[in-house]
Structure formats: structure tokens, C-alpha cells
Amino acid sequence: MSHVKAGGTAKNVHDSPGQRLGVKIFGGQKVKTGQVIVRQVGMTKRPGTGTMMSRNFTIHAKKDGIVKFNSRKIRLFSGKSVRRTEVSVE
Known about the structure:
Elements: E1 22-23, E2 30-31, E3 36-39, E4 45-47, E5 51-53, E6 59-61, E7 65-75, E8 81-89
Parallel strand pairs: 4-8
Antiparallel strand pairs: 1-3, 2-7, 3-6, 5-6, 7-8
């Protein structure tokens, strides 16, 4: 008989690939209709004029133009106001 105890099973060994999130087209760059500007989880950046948000919070361009990022205050449900980045196409 063997005198070595059985080794435990390995858990948490599977690894998933990255989701490729982030800003795809930066401020001042040209964009065409339908192009992805920002891929994000949740609403970290808000859509402004000339942009739209899809179901998975991706921000797309509604029209051809130049991308612009600006910061603005947004009021939360708690009444607290925080700064959020707004993405627009002009």
C-alpha cells in the first residue's frame, strides 16, 4: 500500500480572457456613425449630445464628428452631487 496521502483538488485554476474595456476613441479624434467610443461596465461615463448608450453600457456615435469629453455634476438618488465624464460628438 502507498504511504502518500491523496492530494487535494485544484480550485480556481480557470482563467477568463480580458473584456477589452475602456476608451476606444479619444477626445479630438474623428468618429463615424455607429462607431464605439467607450466600452464600460456600468455607467462610469455618460452619453451626451451626438452619442447613444447600448444595453451593455457601450457608448456609440450617433453622427459623424469629433469626440469631446467634458466633466459635469450629476445628482444621485441620495441627493449627493458627483462629477461624471460626459462623452459627446460635435
